[in-house]
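Entry:
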Amino acid sequence: AVMEKERHNPEYAFLYDLHSPAHAYYRWRLYSLLQGDSLRSWRIAPFVMISGSGRWIPPPMTSELLASRRTAAQTGGGGLRKERDRPLSDTQRD
C-alpha cells in the first residue's frame, strides 16, 4: 500500500533499494511490530524472517542506543559515557 502510493516520492526511495540500510531497518521494524514488539521494546535474539534465508540480528537495546538518539542539549553536552552498553531498564524503554 505505501509502496504503491509513494512510488514517485523520493523520500520513500529506500523502499525499492534492497541494499539500503534504511530498507533493512524498515523491513526489520515492520516485522518486529507485526510480531508484537513495540517502538520502545523489542526482542534482541537473532531470528529468521524468511524460511531459507539468513538470520536477522536486531539492534541492541542499550544506553548507547538511547544516547545516540539524544541531542547534545538533552544530554547536557556530555552524553551517557559511563553507562554505555548497559541494557536499558524497563522505565528507559517505556
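The mean pLDDT is 76.
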